[in-house]
Amino acid sequence: MSAIKKLNLNFNFHWTFFRERNVLPKKDLSFRIVQIFVAEFLGTLILVFWGCNTLGQINSGEPVVTCWLWGNMVFLAITIIGPISNCHINPAVTVSFFIYGYVSVVVGIVYIIAQLLGAIAGYILLMAFGTDDFLDPFGYERSDDFCVNKINTDTPFRAMVLEGVGTALLCFLIGRVCNPLNPKGLTSISFIFSFAIMILAFTLGPITSASVNPARSFGPAVVTGQFKDHWVFWVGPILGALVSSFTYHIFFLPKVNYIDDGTVEAAD
Question: What's the CA gap between 28 and 245, in Å, rounded?
Fold first, then answer.
């Protein structure tokens, strides 16, 4: 035990059930929760609706263009709602923020519910207004499984591992840019995240559809009723988020105490 202490590992987790309740007055807290819900709902809607619009026949033969466009949609979503909710738009990212001590259990659940509903709404809008009236003139093909994530491998376990590794990369980035002793970290998150998404889309796309986001997979699956291998897109990202976030927190995150006004101080 003394050897572990000498390593200065950070097991000082700041997990709470509903910390925000002790920080904000009841009226302000209610409004804050509504803000987070609406922001995450709209952010995930934007991701699914406009992101899926990058996957059509217009970009056939040019996967780099598709990956670049998808990454830029993430950039825009973060730019729009980042100042409000930090733009998780991904349940695995919310899990990571929880491990790092930035959200409580209750608020984390609000995040995830908003993300799932936003993904469903975004795909409904895509099918209702995109496939017939908007996509076809640009060469898109109508299909019942458009933008539904699938795996292109005989072993779902391989796809699960790749989804986990891809999500782990994102959560390592969260640990870096959200480091409490790195106050300017959040200012660069939109660029860093969008660049990472471009890389993951290009490398994982042919095998797992490069979801690395359970909500992005959930919306199209619910609307179309196609859940084949859907567990891959939940288990992989969540495990990736857990392993990477715990690893970063224990080995790399400095020990700090969180103050009610949002600032931090070095722990003893």
Answer: 30
